[in-house]
Each structure stands twice: as C-alpha cells, then as structure tokens.
Amino acid sequence: MYAKSYEEEKLAAAAKKQPPSKKIKSTNNEPLAPVALSARSSKNTVELHEKLQFYGITQTLEFGGSTLEGWTAKTEILGEVVEEKRLFSSKQEAKEVLSGRALELVKRLEAEGKLSKPGKSKRSKSAASTVDAQEQEKPEPGPNYIGQLLEFQRSTNSTQPTYQDYGLGTKFACVVTIEGVPETFGSINDLFTSKKLARQNAAKCAVEHFKSTGAWPESFTDVGGIKKKKKVQPSEPGAISLDGIPIGPSPAQKVAPLAAELGLGTPQWEYETATHPQATGMTTVACHFRNGGPHAGPIGEVRNVFGRKRAKDECARLVVEYLEQLKDQRLSYGRKMLERIDNADEVVSAGAEQPDNTKMVRGSESEDEFHDAE
C-alpha cells in the first residue's frame, strides 16, 4: 500500500514539472464580417392582419420556447386553434410561418361564406375627444421608412420587401431585396445597435432610390401616405373630356417612354427655387439625361414659373417636343441610308461599275446631319 501511494506521489510531481502548454496565436488577420442571421419577410403577417381587420376578427397569439431552444407559436381565430410546433430562431419568423397557415384558414372560411363584414359602430363625442387628445400628446416620431416602403409596394400591387438581418457582436446590419428590382439596398457594413434601426436604414435607401428614379409619387405626404392608383379606361390620344380637361398621359408621363425608346435613360429633373423676396414661389426647372451624350441637357429649361408642378409640366412639354424632333431626325436618317443601300444593290445587280458615282453618293452625307441623328 505504501508502494502504491509513493508511485502516485511520484507521478503527480512529474506532472507539475511539465511546462505549461503555449497558446497558438492565430495568423489570420482578416477583419470580422457580419454573419447572416435570418431573412425577414412579413408578407403573410401583413395580409393576415388586413383580412382580420376587414372582418373585425380578434386574434390571440402565444409563443413558446426560448432564445436558446427556439420558438413555437400558436393562435386562435374564431374558436379554431392553429399551432406551429416547429422551432424557429426568432419570434418574428415563427409568427410569419404561423400567419401563413392562419391565412389559409381565413381564406377557407371566406370561400365558404362564413365571414361577413361587421357594421360601423358610432363613437361618442367624449370618447373621440379623449382619443384625439391622447394622439396629440404623443411625440411625433421620425419618418417611418419601413412603413413608407410597405405602402409604396401596396400602391403598385407588388410583393412585400424581404429584410435580411446580419449580426456582428452586439451590432446589426440589414439588406433589403425587392422583387423585380435587380439591386439590393443597405449594406452589411452599416452597423446599428438594434435590428429595427438597421431595417430602417435599408428601407430608407430603397425609398431614396425610388425617389431618384422618379417612381415615387409626388403626392406622397407623411400624413396621407400613398394611395393606390385608380384604373383609368384607355382613351384616344388628345381626347378632351366634357369639362374641357385633356384626357390621357401628361407631358411628364410621356418623357420617360420617349427617352427609353431613344436610349437616353431615365430623365432627371433639377429644380431651383427663387430666393428673392419678390419672387416667392417661382421655380426654375430643367431636364437632364445622365450619359446622354450630346443630349445630356439641360433640355426644356423654364425659368421663374409660379408653382413647382406648373413649372415641371411646362418643362416636360418642351422636352417632349425636343425628343419627338430627335426621333423624326433618326427615322429620316435611317430611311435615307436604306434608300442608298437599295440603289447600290440595283447598280450591282445591273452589272454597272460606277466607282466615282458610288463614292459621291456615300460621301454626300454631311457630318452635321449624322450628328443630328445620334
């Protein structure tokens, strides 16, 4: 027994004499990059909310699980329980999947005729004044770019944007993708303290993009939002309604398709507001085409016109005249070239050799006429 304890003490002493192991230093000096967390889409959630709001249906929503294990979700609509037992990395992701299943339930009840829109209930004046007072006391937040982008997609009957969240330590970034738009908005290098701020930044980039391309409605306000455009019956160009107002596209609406047909790109409208006290409300506006070459602009410039909309309409009318003249020039030049090619083919087919005449015909095209047709 003494021999056994002696051996154990000897082994313990030998283990203490061994030098401590050194930590291997990493030679990888590459900067840390954000890691993709999850793709955030609220298409099903938004559509379900609109359906329930339309029919006046209340919804209960319960979550189970934890951040480490994952989240489950359960809801009850009109006494029917819809439950999603799969584990998801976030509550929002679980809610989106659950909303998809609940939406199928609502659509089925809707098809069976079991849902009806409730009547409007009258609200007392005292309750209305109390609510209005509470709303006035609330501080006005900054622009809700996520909500603005959502309303814009609704107004154009497009699918809802998808937000891809990224995380780097305690900071977050977000990139938003929109169906039908080739580019993405936001950057993984723009880090924020919360996911909501990161999504706001990505939505802001998308809103600014649509504004720069002229697709954002001019009638938009932070209070009124964006309304869906009403479908207008197609009418003949230049038609006039009974009250004398022209029917059809405005000059500003004609510029974009004409410019695309001529290969000039998207029109850019540059405004300048008069600063002199005696010229209050006067606006100067001109149209430019980026990478338009000799037609880059300014085109159709009008100066000191009262009202921003009126100034743009007048400028657009001049731009349309300019583009139509350019289109006629190019068509005329193309017809002349085809006629000369046909004449040359006839000479060749007849077996006549006229090098001097051919040279004269091809050389008669002036450089000024060629540049005008560009």
From TrEMBL:
Region called Disordered, residue ranges:
1-30, 114-145, 346-374
Q: What domain of life is recorded for the organism?
A: Eukaryota
Q: Which UniProt keywords apply?
A: RNA-binding
What molecular functions are annotated in GO for this chain?
RNA binding
- Residues forming the DRBM domain are 144-212
Q: Does Calcium count among this protein's keywords?
A: no
Basic and acidic residues bias: start-end ranges: 1-11
Q: What is this protein called?
A: DRBM domain-containing protein
Q: Which organism is it from?
A: Lophiotrema nucula
